[in-house]
Amino acid sequence: MKVSFTVTWDYRCPFARNAVEHILTGLEAGAPWDVRFAPFSLSQVHVRESEADVWDDPTMRDTLLAMQAGIAVRDSIPDAFPRVHGALFAARHDEGRDLRDAAVVRAVLQEQEVDPDAVFAEIDGGGPLEAFRREHEQLVAEHSVFGVPTFVADGRAVFVRLMSRPQGDADLACQTIDRVLHLVAGWPDLNEFKHTTIPR
Description:
Layout: E1 3-9, H1 14-28, E2 33-39, H2 42-45, H3 61-76, H4 81-93, H5 102-111, H6 116-125, H7 127-143, E3 150-153, E4 156-159, H8 170-186
Parallel strand pairs: 1-2
Antiparallel strand pairs: 1-3, 3-4
């Protein structure tokens, strides 16, 4: 039976990268998940009441670029989205590339055999930015989402930090995400569980 859930992302967050790698590894191995990847802006979370929203602030456009590229691929070329999604996270966290640079985003798309001109045409048309705003605001309004990655299942939303990456281990990836989903939807009585220290 398919298990449906939503997970938020922002390419800047290493914990979102960890969660997404587990999900993508599990999906590639045939995990029975119906996943909706939802964009969420960490920049918008930190906007003060007197400041313009990031969607309306031209000085913030570069910080939203990679997210818009991901949204454009998700919505227009869904078959390519998993590999582009993973590659954008890798570019930021494994390779130290600057995703605010249009040339970097274009290069990542090209490396994943996606036409960057087509993606940037979508961005220039404004659709990905509007989707970004709409989905972010909906997550805040309906689920009080404040960060990434947040898992939403059965009407419940939980902010999750996974400390490890799957390293290609599909069994580990599936077990990890299934455990998260069980806690989100199967055991709502657990509201907070946080280690006081992190083993090094």
